[in-house]
Amino acid sequence: MALTIKYLLRYKRFLLLNLIGAFGFIVIELGIPTLLAQGISNNFDGRNPAYMTTLAVKMLICAVVGLILLLIMAYAIDRVTSLIVRDIRNDLFTHIQRFSADDYERFGVSRLITNTGNDAYMIMQFLTLILRTGFIAPLMLTSAFVLIFRQNVPLALISIGMTPIIFIAVYFINKRVHRLSAKQQKGLDNINQNMRENLTGLRVIRAFNKESFQTTRFASLNTTYRHISDEMYQKLAFISPIFSVVFCTILVLVINLGSLYISRGELSVGSLSGFIEYIFHALFSFLMLGNVLILYPRFEVSTSRIQEIFNTTPTILENPDGVQSNEHIGHLAFDHVSFSYGDGSEERVLDDISFTAEPGQVIAFIGSTGSGKSTLARLIPRLFDVSQGKILIDGVDVRDYQLQALRKKISYVPQKATLFAGTIRENLLFGDQSATDEDLASAVEIAQAKAFIDSLPEKYDTVLAEGGSNLSGGQKQRLCIARALVKKAPIYLFDDSFSALDYKTDANLRRRLNQELATTTMIIVAQRISTIRNADKIIVLNEGQIVGTGTHRELLITNAVYQEIAKSQLTEEELAI
Ligand SMILES: Nc1ncnc2c1ncn2[C@@H]1O[C@H](COP(=O)(O)OP(=O)(O)OP(=O)(O)O)[C@@H](O)[C@H]1O
Ligand SMILES: [Mg+2]
Predict the structure, then answer these.
(1) H or E element that contains 85
(2) What is the torsional sign of CA 112, 114, 117, 118?
(3) Which end of the chain has fewer CB atoms < 10 Å from its terminal CB, N or C?
(4) DSSP state of 401
(5) Which of 337, 349, 542 has the most ligand 1 atoms within 8 A of CB, as the residue to mutate?
């Protein structure tokens, strides 16, 4: 609730407008029955038509003013709720944007999507309801009770005496609903996750003939969700009848007792009809409050889910007092770096890694799959933080930079080629928004992507599907390389970025990179010896440890792990060199 109040207070103007609308509504809603009761009492036989006309005009004015005020209220509610949901979504997005890979993994992408979509929408629904009824219902209820007491005390006591039944029933129902609502939202997360996986893995699913398996899995999640929803709505369905039963009982008692009072001359017909009218207003306010109570547990669950995200401090913290800019030299040093994923208690993925890379050097990493090469690359731009030791760039610990400043120094091509929906040009400009057409053309030429872009009918304006799925693996890789080249940073990180290229393209690309990036620091992670054999320094990783450092020639002679990799890839002739 505190979260919602914080956002509500941003729009005090609209809240005031809402309050004005609500007050007018109450006066008029209760004003008309008061006028009606007066009319019935004073002029029941119709002998004073002038009085009736004045009364009718008064009632009409009440109705028109009421309508105008209602419109003002509706406008205020629409504005304030849509603005608040926009703010919540924007703030969530900005906050999530700062999450590290670890944080994403903890919550799961699907959950974060449900938070920004469904949970935020639930808050909007509840706010609309509470603003529509939050002021009106309690005020109307109080005024109705005051008027009821003024009409007849015994009747009023009977009516009010019955209401605790409703509160007790709603309290117990809502306790159950709260639990079910939490399960329901979790169920929605699962459905979203399954849907996402299904859509992104469509090709694999088809190739493995797993459509029916996936359909069954989805249907089962969907059924679980339906069961939870059914159970929840069944519980909620009790609330309305309880209201009706209690109010019908009140009405029966009031009419019976009221007629007795009338026959004894202790109550007028007008007063009884006014009383019944007020009872209906009280009922109406109760029903409005009932709707708020029905929605409240679900709102509470959605709010706490969103609050949990806001309460999560990203594990990679910005260093606001950090270095904003220093000289872009490109000197990189790992100083006894160790790392493990998660909270640091798991097995070490990198163990005591130390090396340096100077501008103009090509440093290559090779090692079997799972040896920690990608992990090592991810530590440099602080996608994860080291568990022990430190990484220095241009003499400064990466944690002592402001994140923007640090990442400006690094052009990173991740192992998994990631492109965005949009044109090729837009994707390339991701590297640097201010890049000119010549800059793009040069990057594309170096990345060996010119020929294939030129062959496309729309060239740079070719629209890429989500994730670049309308390109081949090698084309995607080349665009990712070009994007990194557009960024022009002093340190380049290529994480297995040449794996989907044929030997010739790979060779051409490396030749052009060596020419163009002669003064930068290049870190290349590769599986193929041919890709790295000319590197200034090759570092062999095995199970997170450095087991060899040297040039291709040196390692061929001295390093058993390297020899093994080399034997599996090179011919006898090549090995002999
Ligand atoms: N996000 C993660 N959370 C937990 N463990 C991870 C994560 N990413 C990788 N690992 C584990 O860390 C180890 C090193 O993985 P890494 O991706 O660095 O290997 P790699 O050398 O790049 O392998 P490959 O050549 O297959 O790309 C592996 O055992 C892997 O299971
Ligand atoms: Mg890897």
Answers:
(1) helix 49-97
(2) negative
(3) C
(4) B
(5) 349
- Sheet containing strand 521-525, edge to edge, reads 410-413, 491-495, 521-525, 362-367, 537-542, 545-550
CA–centroid distance for 473 within its chain: 29
- Which carries the bigger pLDDT value, residue 546 or residue 271? 546
Q: How far apart, in whole angstroms, are the C-alpha atoms of residue 190 and residue 192?
A: 5
Ligand 1-lining residues (CB < 6 angstroms): 341, 349, 367, 369-375, 415, 496
Question: How far, in Å, is the centroid of ligand 2 from the Cα of 373?
Answer: 5
Q: How is residue 347 written in tokens?
A: 């097995």
Domains located in the chain, CATH noted:
2-311 (1.20.1560.10)
State how far the Cα of 577 lies from the Cα of 562, in Å rounded to an integer: 14
- Mind listing the pLDDT tens digit for each residue in 538-553? 999 988 899 888 888 8
Structure confidence by residue, pLDDT tens digits, 48-72: 777 778 888 888 888 888 888 888 9
Mean pLDDT of the chain: 85
Distances (CA, A) of 240 to 236, 245, 278: 8, 9, 20
Name the residues around ion ligand 2, CB cutoff 5 A.
374, 415
Measured from the alpha carbon of residue 414, the closest ligand is: 2
CA-nearest residue, atom 25 of ligand 1: 369
109-146 pLDDT, tens per residue? 888 888 888 889 989 999 998 888 877 788 778 877 88
Distance of CA 484 to the CA centre of its chain: 28
